[in-house]
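Hello,

Following up on my earlier ticket. Below are the two sequence lines again, exactly as submitted.
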Amino acid sequence: GESVGLHLPTLSVQEGDNSIINCAYSNSASDYFIWYKQESGKGPQFIIDIRSNMDKRQGQRVTVLLNKTVKHLSLQIAATQPGDSAVYFCAENSPLYGQNFVFGPGTRLSVLP
Amino acid sequence: DVKVTQSSRYLVKRTGEKVFLECVQDMDHENMFWYRQDPGLGLRLIYFSYDVKMKEKGDIPEGYSVSREKKERFSLILESASTNQTSMYLCASERGQGVSKGYTFGSGTRLTVV
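Thanks for your patience. The regenerated structure is below:
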């Protein structure tokens, strides 16, 4: 289930189940979005991106969905594995922000054995 | 394998010390960034640079300065370290020309100021 912890929303899923991590972005003019994964003690790593002219993009075991109407982004991870345990961030880029990305607060994904 | 390298993974410094955090990238990227990451506050932009010798303040520049003397190196300087600067510091770089493909991050430097 999903719960809001002291600092970070946490999503707990059983190994093998699918995970869905959500992100509400700020700016309707944002035209490029990225999901990053950050494992404990490491820097964020690029997972998948999507531009605003698309609604869906698939990678290996991951899918990103973009709903521009409600300014919502989601990351779906199929057959979640223990190695997927990490904090996941969405990032948006808009001409209004200049060249810089704005990052969401992150969601911690915990994979249960 | 392309990378952003932060010189230290862990640092412990005393209050009032001048602290240098170094970041080097080997991708010939124009844009470089320094963030700090704190629980509950996410990633906050301290300073960024779009070119050599160019720097711009981010959202929380107070107490920090930066140096970009060479394209591949972007240094963050804490002029007089304070305990509220205890944090995880992340450096990132990005290609500045053409369409963005997002940031490449370093592994981070966890700084403790005592």
